[in-house]
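Notes from hallway chat w/ T.B., transcribed later so I don't forget. T.B. wanted the structure written out for a chain they're using in a teaching module, and asked if we could keep both sequence and structure tokens in one place. Agreed to drop them here.
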Amino acid sequence: MAAAARPVRSIPFASSSTSLLISSSRALPPAFRSSGVASSSPAASSMRRQLLLGVGAPAVAALAASAPPALLQDGAATLLTTAGAYALVRAFDALTERRLIEQNLSRKIVHVLSGVLFMSSWPLFSNSTQARFFAAIVPFLNCIRLLIYGLRLYTDEALVKSVTREGKPEELLRGPLYYVIVLLVSVLVFWRESPIGIVSLSMMSGGDGFADIVGRRYGSLKLPFNKKKSWIGSFSMFISGFLLSALMMFYFSGLGYFRVSWELGIGKLALVAFAATVVECIPVTDVVDDNISVPFAAMFVAFLLFGYTSH
């Protein structure tokens, strides 16, 4: 019992009065402040061990109570979004492995859904200034993951087959990596208060994604200046990019993140979609990947037309 009465040493990082581990007796439960048998009883000693070890309901409750609500909300939103992104890729990994869906189609469906679902998750985060940084953890972790597998530090054949054209790990360091970098840039620079990032991600994920899906199946009539692209694919990019951009802007403006004058906004969105489609048609894919040229072209035109925030 003498060991139970030994004073608790303070932890360097626990400097505030709300800290769980603190040397001051004022912050301890009443059972520890009282003298005599109560302070050295088995129940009190057990509670003290739980608090010091950071386990048990009292420790969890104390940590939850001391954390700001915004921090808890952003942490939960990050975990949920990360789990969703991982589950999406894994689901199409499994479908590709079982040959229930062809590799190119799987790759482009993941391409479309990843950006759309990531943007759709942004309202889950709080209104605090650090919310965008929590959201940025999701594409950042994907960047690390792609680097690990692309550099062959670890092997994941299912992932490679579901998100690459030819099933080579090195491909992860090109289109897929550029894609998540654009997600990272959009969330850090523009976030949900600006239509620029929303429109550029919509054109990259929805526009470019559907252009490939439709063009591969029905694109027999090629563009005269780019035999790798088709008229129907380019038309699909314009329509799908425009519609997805309008839908996502309606979604975020309806939640109050910015205001849109739809009388002018529709025309501006059409111009952004047209500019992104023209850039996607240009035969420079061997030099600049579509996952770079399309979103950054959309960002530039959207900035000229909308400004940083829409009114």
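Follow-up for T.B.: The longest strand covers residues 226-230. Might be a good example for the class.
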